[in-house]
Amino acid sequence: MKNNSKVVIVLLAIVALSLIAACVPAQPAPVTVVETVVVEKEGETITVVETVEVEKIVEVEKEVFKEVSPVAYNSMHGDPEPRRVDEMLVQMFNEQNPDTPVDQSTINHEDFKQAIRAYLVADPAPDVMTWFAGNRARFFIDKGLILDISDVWEEQGWNEDYPKGFRAMSSVDGKQYFLPSSWYWWAIFYRKSIFEEQGITPPETWDELLTTCDTLNEQGIIPITIGTKFRWTAAAWFDYINMRLNGPEFHLNLMLGKESYEDPRVKAVFEKWTELFEHNCFIEDAAAYSWQDALDPLNRGEAAMYLMGQFITDSVAEEVQDDIDFFRFPIIDPDQPIGEDAPTDGYFMSANAKNAEGGKKFLAFMGSKEAQTIMVEELGRLPVHSGVDPGLFNPMQQKGIELIQGADLVVQFYDRDTTPEMADAGMNGMMAFWDDPEAIDDILADLEAVRQEVFAEEE
Amino acid sequence: MAVTSPTVHQKQKMNWTPYLFLIGPLALYLVWIIGPMLYTFYLSLTDWDGISPEAKYVGLENFEALFSSLGRRVPSAFEYSLSNNLKWLLTFITVPVGIGLGLAMVLNQDVKGDRFFKMGIFLPQVLSLPVIALIWSYGVYSPRGGLLVSLLNMGIDDPPAMLAEKHLVIWAIILAAAWRQVGYIMILYVAGLKNVDPTLLDASLVDGANAWERFRHVIFPLLAPVTTIVVVISIIDSLRSFDMVWVMTKGGPANASSVLAVLMYIQAFNNYKMGLGAATAVILFAISLVFIIAYLSRVMKDELEY
Amino acid sequence: MATQTETLSGVTTAAVNRKKSNLLGRIALYSFLIIFTLSYMTPVFSALLTSVRTQDDISLNGFFSAPREIVLQNYAQAWSQGGVNKYLLNSFIITIPALIGTIFLSSLSAYALARYRFRGNRPIYFMYVAGTMLPFQILLLPVFLLTNKLGLYNTYWSVILIHTAFQLGFCTFVLRNFMRTIPGEIMDAARIDGANEFGIYWRIVMPLTVPAIAAVATLEFTWIFNDYLWAIILLQNDALKPVTAGLSTLQGQFVTNWPLIVAGALIATVPTLIVFFALLKNFDRHQFSGHDDGF
Lengths: 459, 306, 295
Hints:
The structure holds 3 protein chains of 3 kinds.
Chain A: H1 2-23, E1 32-37, E2 62-67, E3 71-75, H2 80-96, E4 102-106, H3 109-121, E5 128-132, H4 135-142, H5 150-156, H6 158-161, H7 164-170, E6 171-172, E7 175-176, E8 178-183, E9 186-191, H8 192-198, H9 206-218, E10 222-224, H10 232-246, H11 248-255, H12 264-278, H13 295-300, E11 303-309, H14 312-315, E12 324-327, E13 339-341, E14 344-349, H15 356-366, H16 369-379, E15 382-383, H17 395-405, E16 409-411, H18 414-417, H19 420-435, H20 440-456
Parallel strand pairs in A: 3-4, 3-5, 10-11, 13-16
Antiparallel strand pairs in A: 1-2, 5-14, 6-7, 8-14, 8-15, 9-11, 9-12
Helix pairs in contact in A: 2-16, 10-11, 10-12, 10-19, 19-20
Chain B: H1 17-43, H2 61-68, H3 77-92, H4 95-108, H5 114-126, H6 129-140, H7 147-152, H8 169-195, H9 198-206, H10 211-222, H11 224-240, H12 243-248, H13 260-270, H14 274-302
Chain C: H1 2-40, H2 42-51, H3 55-61, H4 73-81, H5 84-115, H6 121-130, H7 140-149, H8 156-179, H9 184-192, H10 197-208, H11 210-226, H12 229-234, H13 243-248, H14 258-280
């Protein structure tokens, strides 16, 4: 009993303390900043006064209370490097704008996707949030949950400084809602040393790609590594084969639900895909690996290529970093325009934002040339602001920019271009195909059924 | 064991005492849990997307959609979920229960340092999920350099990649989940064993019963309340299972390891179809309810009457 | 005759034999336990190993390989980057009240359900159990909406209340079943002695239920402490976040520094293990046993 009472007492004490702490209002109250205006005080030896004339000012130390209205900023950039830069930028802004300091909260990327629906309807809603361009943003904009920031675009001159494509991606019905801030390109990244050793030059056509696979297989090297456990890596292959075979416009229309999944052109994509299986291009048991797990063979020199976004360079082992280069996804049909995946991240504001003015100030800062330059220098991402000095780009970034500039159409990525439900069904279909290519007709029929249901609602 | 039959002069009067005990907790529970639960049931009849201010009533459409997805060549997520949950259920009410009970019995004896053993077994419950996923999917099941494959390679050619094979993936996950569950069950049985009156045990010793007979006829029946708890929990947990699947495969590949809770989550939160997710939850709830009511009713019949 | 000496030596031999087989038995027992527990913990040990390496090392050399170099900075980094110093207090502010609240309230319910006959006993009991049947994720939005309406959004109370309420189901269920094992005579005797109902509950039944309470408290602490989804949905302010939410940000969108995450996760297990250790002491029910069987 004595043991129990002791435990109970200790626990009760903790409870009491916790309850007291919990009762302290945790709502972000306006922070008062005490600014001390020090004026020369007669008689005090605070500073060395050079001037002989001592100003006979009556005031002494005056305490000025300034009302500060914080800006609530929720970020999903948890990755170490992006987060570091994010925090750096916030700090810069806070120094320049002490009366509207940003209150930053970083959430795990996955959880953010869940939390955002709470954020947008909560009271108080956060002011600024990170998010993706494309369909994902569109979804919320259409529901009236996002603040119109056309005025910020206008004031900051972004209508001129941001390339047309990015402006288009941020607008709905002529008004801007989204601030794009960084993007990256997709390509086939490869180990230079392996290619050199095997005397391979980066393939430019589909047939060359297949030959490359054969050559590598003969040498016991896995041609293409990929981790499809979480599906999106497979979707990249769909995107590119579709764009190269049928043209990016068809691809985009398919994403928007305007084309049928049972169109023979879609099936043709999977037939081409099967050729990759026939030539043993991919690593075995791809579905057992996350995208990052599948990096191991590339790191170890056991595999040669990986179709991936530019962020792969953040993750390859340090010893391997200088050995990585990329080439554009091979051409299948030379008559088709060239489309590329270039997912774009950015910011938007909640329509219920408590501090819209402060939020807009913050956005203006984040979209400025200054902030964009920092993102380029520190993160190696590509900026949206065209005023950023191109001399800052390292060779790989230059190459990436050329890749995108050389594209006829730039799209976001399968699961950002089409609705979430369609993306979910589509990617599951691709995984089912990977497992059982013979079932493709049934798979496509199922996908078509989903498409009709999903996009019918939108009409 | 006649206990609280109202004393003579209270027989006709209503005994308010139990209600007084119940008011506080019940109020909280009704508002915070039962309320949202009923709201969820209502949502299953709508097409709410989880964010718009209005939701349209659509009747049983969501349920129709789910059930009509059964029987396709490429099984739907719902179909996989039902069979996977069933496999999970059958495993959970046998394996972790048996092992947990066995460990509790062993550790209940005078064992030095038994707290450390208990802690070791309980540790999987405490470890955060991403780490468990890492250990099992990367460390154990990885086809390149994983523990399982290294072990199997000693006997089998071309061992399977557990998480990539659609017929094996759910078992791989269930194994990891069972590994995690054992400590939980063990703790409950440890408490239950401490509850057992040792004089009854001693009596059976004197009667000359051997260990197995003692267990079967004395200890196990005395553990009945704990076994009730454990079985109910195992049923509920196996039908509710989400965490392990989510971190290891998110229901893949191509829904092969999907379970009802994961399906529900993807529908509600990824696909913005809260109504459909709620419908899946309702089905999950209904299945649990059937099992639990059947089981508990039987148990309560055997419970001693007051 | 042979009786006394023989019996004596017979007993002695038997005693010696029992002692011998006892010793063998104990060796077997401990060997089994050690081997079993250690192999059971292999995954955990591999996690420990991972936490002192670099991500590159694992990628290049494999998960189960010997580390090329031992690094301890993962722990320091997890601590600061995961915000452990910032958020740990929040975790306690949320967990302790919720834990006490749920155990206290469910013990009240359990007592009523276990020891009284009254109308609605069975339905209410089933209702508590039914409340545990739904995966909590589906309740995220309804509870969020409720919290928002009550004006509790973005406060500690929102999380404390949901945890308290949600765990009531499980705790009531468990405690009710344990409380039923208490013989009624004890309570009758107390009544005759003039104790009131609450006194019986507090002074008689609760102490007898201590093993169950300890077990439940251990489990509840683990679950409440390790939760973060509720925190993410119901809290927005960075200053309020529990440590689990902070640690989850270590997991990036693309890149995951696994050793870092593992280090963070291992740090997060420490409070729970301390509680576990402390509570295990309370598994004895002193009132009953004349002797202690246990530690």
